[in-house]
């Protein structure tokens, strides 16, 4: 019998199966992926470096949707804002992957390249080396929290007795549509304002 024209198993198929499992249940196991692909569990180890290797393939797959060219924009704060929005959209498409990816060290080379570009952007803008990673990590915390918020129910507060919490009810009624977008814009503007003040306090340029 001749070889099949399309390989039964490769890294792309493994990544797709793993991401489908994570999107559905928030987790995956190597045996689950094998069953989904109709192969023996041991066969996967010919293509990936165990579970940790699959996690990094997932990280690369999700990060493919982040537009790294945003980090070429100037001034630096415009670049960070555009990167943050693209980053948020990429992870909002797979919110159940966030806890998995955030609790495993980043090793994927293509993802590390994103960080290298972000670090370079901030250093070129005049940030101190010691301030660069706190800026990036703070931005990520905000972005990923907002990505999870996009997957949350539209009504996150259910008030049974308006008389018990009248001011909360009034504030929620005034919130209107686009809760998550408005909240993200508010947080992003505050983050960038603080980052600008940090840069100016160190004597860096503002653009």
TrEMBL record:
The keyword Cytoplasm belongs to this UniProt entry's keyword annotation: no
Pfam families in UniProt: TetR_C_1
Residue ranges annotated for the HTH tetR-type domain, each copy included: 8-66
Superkingdom per UniProt: Bacteria
Species: Streptomyces chartreusis
InterPro entries: Homeodomain-like_sf (IPR009057), HTH-type_TetR-like_transc_reg (IPR050109), HTH_TetR (IPR001647), Repressor_TetR_C (IPR004111), Tet_transcr_reg_TetR-rel_C_sf (IPR036271)
Name under which the protein is recorded: TetR/AcrR family transcriptional regulator C-terminal domain-containing protein
PROSITE patterns according to UniProt: HTH_TETR_2
Single GO BP term: negative regulation of DNA-templated transcription
Ranges of the DNA-binding region feature: 29-48
GO function terms (MF aspect): DNA-binding transcription factor activity; transcription cis-regulatory region binding
Keyword entries, A-Z: DNA-binding, Transcription, Transcription regulation
């Amino acid at each position: 019998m001749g070889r099949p024209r399309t390989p039964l198993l490769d890294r792309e198929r493994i990544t797709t199966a793993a991401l489908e499992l994570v999107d559905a249940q928030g987790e995956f196991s190597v045996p689950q992926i094998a069953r989904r692909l109709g192969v023996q569990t041991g066969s996967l180890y010919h293509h990936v470096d165990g579970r940790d290797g699959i996690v990094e393939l997932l990280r690369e797959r999700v990060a493919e949707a982040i537009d790294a060219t945003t980090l070429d924009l100037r001034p630096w704060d415009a670049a960070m804002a555009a990167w943050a929005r693209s980053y948020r959209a990429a992870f909002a498409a797979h919110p159940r992957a966030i806890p998995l990816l955030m609790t495993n060290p980043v090793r994927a080379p293509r993802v590390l390249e994103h960080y290298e570009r972000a670090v370079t952007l901030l250093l070129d803008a005049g940030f101190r080396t010691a301030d660069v990673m706190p800026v990036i990590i703070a931005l990520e915390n905000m972005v990923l929290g907002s990505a999870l918020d996009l997957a949350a129910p539209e009504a996150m507060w259910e008030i049974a007795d308006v008389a018990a919490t009248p001011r909360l009810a009034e504030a929620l009624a005034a919130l209107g549509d686009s809760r998550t977008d408005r909240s993200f814009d508010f947080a992003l503007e505050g983050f960038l304002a603080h980052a600008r003040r940090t840069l100016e306090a160190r004597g860096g340029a503002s653009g």
